[in-house]
Every structure is written in C-alpha cells, then in structure tokens.
Design brief:
Layout lengths: L11 H7 L9 H15 L1 H7 L4 H22 L7 H21 L8 H11 L3 H13 L9 H23 L6 H19 L1 H6 L7 H6 L4 H5 L5 H22 L7 H23 L13 H13 L8
Helix pairs in contact: 2-3, 2-4, 2-6, 3-14, 4-6, 4-7, 4-8, 5-7, 7-8, 8-9, 9-13, 9-14, 13-14, 14-15
Length: about 325
C-alpha cells in the first residue's frame, strides 16, 4: 500500500463529538474526557454500569471503550463513499500508529489514543489482547459470513473476549481464573449485540449468526432480505439466546474472583446486558422492526436490586 493515495478521513464520531481535535495534540485529561463522551453517547448500558465502579477507575473504562468505538467507526461509519481498500488503509494506518507508540512509549497526536496508551501502560494491559482486537476489526472489512460457531470464534475472541480480559486490570486484584470468566462475559455481550443488531448488520452486508445454525432451523438469506421473522427464524434466535445465556451463567462464577469494590459495577453491567435478551423475547424476536433496548427505569431497578441483594443470581 505504499504510495497509495487516500484521504485522511475522520470517523463519524469525530464529526459528532471530537471535531477540532483530530490530527492535533491533546493533553491527557482532554483525551480521557473525549473517551468519556464517546462512552456516554454510544455505550449507554455499559456507561450506566461503569458509574457503579470506584470513581478512580472509571476513566480507564472510558479509555478502553473509546479505543474500541473509534476503531469500530473506522470500519463501519467512515465516509460511505470510501472503498473497502480505503477503509482498510485508514484502519491499518491508525492501528500502526497506536502499536508503534505502545511499543516505543512515545507520545501520539490523536484525540483518543493518548488516554488508551496511558491506561495500557499504567495497568499493564496485555499488548497481545490489543493486537487481537485490532485484528478482528480488520476482519470486518473482508469477512461477512461465518460457516460455523468455531469459525466465528476467531472474530469473537478479538472483538469481545479480549475486551473482557482487558477490563481485569481496571477492576483491581483478581483471582488467576478470572480471565476465563471475564472472556465469557465479553463473548456473552457480543452475542447479545449480534442478536440485537441483526437488522443493521444485514444492512452492512454481514450476518454474524453461524450459517450452520441457519441451516439447522431452515433459515436462508432470503429471510434476511425479506426481513421476515418466520417460525424457523424464531427458533434460530431462541437457540442463540440460550447460547448467550449459558455464557452469562458461566461468567457469574467470576464475580467472587473480583475485588469487592468492583463487583457491583460488573454485576450491574452483566444483568443489564442480559436483560436485552429478555427484551428480544418480549418483542417476539421482531429484530427487523424493533431494536431491543433496556429503559433507564429498568436499569435503575436492576442496579437497586443488585446493590440491595448482591448475592442474588444474575439469572434469577
């Protein structure tokens, strides 16, 4: 790609909230604040739960969210007139700039990355996890279907499991087995997103449900094209909901592996996100007509119950 002429585009999120900051130095406090704004605007359920973590740790969560959101926007929300190659060049250039600064310890001119780099260095976040995330973001530029659940696993590992693992240093001292449970929770969140976002993913030309599962329930791409939720489509989604719930249940085992001060925030995030599955069921799986969301009043009720009865099961 050397010598390839391309614009220096800014993601949609820059236009919305970071305009005026792209391509120029920002101080660390400003970078963290910009990440917080991204989190508040685009990750509302997750942002809500973050408020129940110790105050001195929240900015690190905002930085990790800002990193993930910015990369995702480079893939999906960049100027739609750009070709896949131009998008790949933009993502690869941004990723290379980040990884070079991560390895060298140098400063970087970017609105989001100074906070991300500071969080990664201060907390000792595994560089391999950061690279795995960027690899999965690059996959979105070329891969639109996954034959089996195992095939999907490579993408989900980088896009979700390692995000859960990256959160552990933010949460304080943890049990050695906490990483596996944190990765389970990250995958559960991602599978929930896949179900909630079926319609918009289809509009982008992607299906994240394994094709072997579509075949099992007699669902074809024509159902997506017609936006038709048949009996087979409902059975397919019920199967995927059960798969996600199994991961949520397994992730519960990690609660007691966390430092007590961090447990409430993670339990609340866990329960609020799992509630999206209940909303999908309540909407009779009409994913092309309704985007499942958890109202603020319900989030507040979940938070109040978790704070009052911290030992309750997330699935109870």
């Amino acid at each position: 790609m050397t010598g390839y002429a391309h614009p220096d585009p800014s993601p949609r999120i820059v236009a919305e909230g970071l305009a005026g900051y792209a391509g120029r130095p920002v101080d660390l406090a400003t970078s963290y604040e910009l990440c917080r704004r991204l989190h508040a605007a685009h990750g509302r359920t997750y942002y809500f739960a973050t408020r129940f973590l110790p105050a001195e740790r929240r900015h690190h969560v905002h930085a990790l969210y800002g990193f993930a959101r910015y990369a995702d926007d480079l893939v999906d929300h960049l100027d739609l007139s750009l070709t896949p190659l131009q998008r790949r060049v933009a993502l690869e250039g941004w990723s290379a700039k980040f990884l070079a600064a991560l390895d060298s310890g140098s400063k970087i001119d970017d609105p989001v990355l100074p906070a991300v780099l500071h969080t990664a260095r201060v907390l000792g976040i595994d560089g391999g996890d950061l690279r795995a995330f960027l690899h999965s973001m690059a996959m979105d530029l070329t891969v639109t279907r996954y034959r089996t659940y195992d095939d999907l696993g490579e993408y989900v590992h980088g896009s979700a499991a390692v995000i859960g693992a990256m959160m552990l240093p933010v949460l304080g001292p943890t049990h050695p087995d906490a990483r596996a449970r944190a990765m389970d929770l990250g995958i559960a969140f991602q599978l929930t997103n896949f179900l909630r976002d079926i319609s918009e993913d289809w509009d982008r030309g992607r299906i994240y449900l394994p094709l072997e599962d579509l075949d099992r329930f007699g669902v074809g791409e024509w159902d997506f094209r017609a936006r038709h939720v048949s009996a087979g489509f409902r059975r397919l989604l019920a199967f995927e909901v059960a798969r996600a719930r199994a991961l949520y249940r397994r992730a519960e085992q990690g609660w007691t592996m966390l430092e007590p001060a961090s447990r409430a925030g993670i339990r609340i995030a866990h329960r609020c996100y799992a509630e999206i599955l209940n909303r999908l069921e309540a909407a009779d799986y009409q994913v092309f007509r309704v985007r499942a969301a958890v109202p603020t009043r319900r989030k507040l009720a979940i938070a109040a119950r978790e704070l009052a009865y911290p030992s309750r099961s997330a699935t109870g």
